[in-house]
Amino acid sequence: MPDAANPLELHRAYKRLFECADGQTVMADLERRGCFLHSSFSTDKGRTAFNEGRRSLVLHMKHMIDETNFIPKENER
């Protein structure tokens, strides 16, 4: 089990999960349900906030599977 306190190990776990066919199917479903590809706006402010919460989780997962977010920058080496 990866160490959740280690960001690189957590990234690797996300990547393994979402690289497989089932993970890609789940991500596509989350994108549809999470207002990732369309507006989260609603005339009901509560609904907009709810939609943005869903969208935030999808954005977090996308961030976690992108390895460029885990490459040390020049000044961090």
Question: Which key features would you list for this structure?
Answer:
single chain; 77 residues; mainly alpha; 3 helices; 0% strand; globular
Polypeptide structure, described:
The chain is an all-alpha fold and 77 residues long. The chain has one domain. Helices cover 61% and strands 0% of the residues. The two termini are 27 Å apart.
Beta strand count: 0
Domain unit count? 1
**How many strands, what sense, and barrel or not for the largest sheet?**
none
Strand content: under 5%
Write a brief structural summary.
The chain has 77 residues and is mostly helical.
Topology of helices and strands:
Elements: H1 7-19, H2 21-33, H3 45-65
